[in-house]
Amino acid sequence: MDEVFKALADPSRRKLLDELFKSNGKTLGELCEHLDMTRQAVTKHLVILEAANLVATVWRGREKLHYLNPVPLQEIYERWIGKYERHRLRALSDLKKGLEQNKNKKG
Amino acid sequence: MDEVFKALADPSRRKLLDELFKSNGKTLGELCEHLDMTRQAVTKHLVILEAANLVATVWRGREKLHYLNPVPLQEIYERWIGKYERHRLRALSDLKKGLEQNKNKKG
DNA sequence: TTGACATGCAACCTATTGGTTGCATATTGT
DNA sequence: ACAATATGCAACCAATAGGTTGCATGTCAA
Questions:
Q1: Is B31 in contact with B19 (CB distance < 8 Å)?
Q2: Does the C-beta of A35 come within 7 A of strand C?
Q3: Which of B68, B84, B73 has its CA nearest to residue B4?
Q4: Do A77 and B77 form a contact (C-beta atoms < 8 A)?
Q5: Which residues lie below 8 Å from residue B42, measured CB to CB, with a gap of 6+?
Q6: Assign residue A51 a region: left if phi > 0, alpha if psi is -120 to 50, beta otherwise?
Q7: What 3-state class would DSSP assign to A55?
Q8: Model pLDDT, residue B102
Q9: Measured between beta carbons, which residues in chain B are less than 8 angstroms from residue A71?
Q10: What is the pTM of this model?
């Protein structure tokens, strides 16, 4: 869970996921083409994405193919984002109430 | 968008959001009670959450009340997580296909 | 077999992050 | 008015993150 959030925090890593979304099963070399950094830097990002289980890899000869795994994103939504969303309207009404309460205390 | 992801990357900040989820409108002092760090550290986290628009604040006298704003989380889901989720099954089937393809190439 | 290709591993550097301490400011209650 | 309370601001510090360069390893193709 923690690793997934951390993996998503970096824009380059999100871009990598976007690349894989566009065309799954890319090699490291192919993924490098779209990022303005060295191959080694991209490798590091991919390692983090793998650790978060957001990317699965398969060796084919000397090439490493990268596949997007959206399951952890689903879990983030269900366990975390959904939790707040469900009460979105209530939270906003609380905020409004708080603002009015403040107004009253002041005035 | 970027700021939201960054804000969510830290476990202490997620814990703060959890606190506000449990009971909205807490003061800084109240939020500090549950975190094992100095008040100033908590303030820094809250500043980041505010910058990401995940927390809205209201002054009531000398107290600062903090309110959870789940809207950016909704946006993350819609613009980003949902994008992958929608094609979750397809992506998994691609992964499977990739594995089989590899198996064939090897054998 | 051998050279080119695709990737891995490790040391290193700099910027950022998460935390601290110390002091300043503003509000409250007596 | 004044002491206590609630918070802000800034300097500082250690750990981590994101990037680099250099070299090693393993696979393909002629």
A1: yes
A2: no
A3: B73
A4: yes
A5: B12, B16, B28, B31, B32, B35
A6: alpha
A7: strand
A8: 45
A9: 88, 92
A10: 0.85
> Strand D: which of residues 34-53 in chain B lie with Cβ below 7 A?
39-40, 43
Residue type, B96: K
Q: How far apart are CA A37 and CA A21, in angstroms?
A: 20
- What whole-number distance in Å separates Cα of residue B97 and Cα of residue A46? 21
Name the residue with tokens 């894989």. Answer: A20
Distance CA A12, CA A41 (A): 10
Nucleotide nearest to A66 (CA to C1'): C7
Rounded average pLDDT per 10-residue block, chain A, 107 residues? 95 97 96 97 98 96 95 90 75 51 39
A85: three-class secondary structure by DSSP: helix
Dihedral sign, Cα of residue B67, residue B70, residue B71, residue B73: positive
| Cβ-nearest to B9 among A6, A94, A99 | A6
